[in-house]
Backbone:
């Protein structure tokens, strides 16, 4: 797991090379490609580290909960240990990419944004692990989630309206790119491609930030995903919420039957 990030970072460095350019438009475009790849790489490392952690131990966990093991400390132990791992991965990834590509911007802020992104990725992976049922199914779902992160991150397509709201509410990748964008100079953030006269050209990179707001949102998303993992795991292990759902279904069925 520790080798994942350095290997990915070296591949990014080899593929992009030195991204510095005299023209702000070209520099901004290259930066966008690099940070987009880094964010997805961090989410991939976090997802692969966490998506099988619970489902592979489910039979053991079911047994141990009968003898005092509680769900909340169990989830927190997973999150804490994997959080340390992915923080180190984020550090190694960013350090190597900066050295090989000449990526500008504050190292500290970019590291914190990537680390908080990895925390959200871990929480999301743990949630998938609680509901997947099998390790194979969990690994099947993970690529779909990562593709969704790429599509709705704002790094590929310009998001507007309901699509943008959906991305803001559910996608850690959206806030990760937003936070990293805030670390660049104004000239890079506001650069645009040449366009026809009279037509608005949006910035290639965008303003982004403030980064501390992005960190808060990433923390909230992590908490939400962890809460979903806790609720679903508690329901599966104890059956506490299942009878209530069954009663609601029976109530609706009785109402419809009476109407007919």
Residues:
């Amino acid at each position: 797991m520790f080798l994942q990030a350095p290997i990915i970072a070296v591949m990014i460095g080899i593929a992009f090379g030195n991204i510095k350019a005299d023209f702000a438009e070209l520099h901004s475009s290259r930066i966008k490609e690099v940070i987009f790849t880094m964010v997805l790489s961090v989410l991939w490392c976090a997802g692969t580290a966490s998506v099988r952690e619970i489902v592979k131990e489910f039979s053991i966990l079911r047994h141990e909960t009968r003898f005092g093991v509680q769900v909340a400390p169990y989830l927190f132990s997973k999150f804490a240990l994997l959080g340390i791992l992915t923080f180190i991965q984020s550090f190694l990834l960013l350090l190597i990419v900066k050295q090989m590509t000449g990526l500008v911007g504050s190292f500290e802020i970019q590291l914190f944004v990537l680390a908080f992104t990895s925390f959200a990725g871990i929480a999301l992976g743990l949630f998938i692990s609680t509901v997947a049922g099998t390790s194979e199914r969990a690994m099947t779902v993970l690529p779909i989630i990562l593709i969704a992160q790429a599509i709705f991150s704002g790094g590929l397509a310009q998001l507007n309206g309901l699509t943008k709201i959906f991305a803001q509410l559910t996608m850690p990748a959206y806030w990760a790119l937003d936070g990293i964008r805030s670390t660049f100079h104004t000239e890079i953030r506001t650069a645009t491609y040449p366009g026809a006269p009279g037509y608005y050209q949006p910035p290639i990179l965008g303003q982004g930030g403030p980064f501390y707001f992005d960190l808060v949102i990433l923390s909230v998303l992590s908490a939400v995903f962890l809460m979903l993992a806790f609720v679903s795991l508690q329901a599966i292990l104890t059956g506490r919420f299942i009878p209530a759902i069954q009663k609601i279904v029976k109530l609706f069925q009785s109402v419809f039957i009476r109407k007919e």
The chain has a mean pLDDT of 87. The CA atoms of residues 192 and 203 lie 5 Å apart. The longest helix spans residues 71-101.
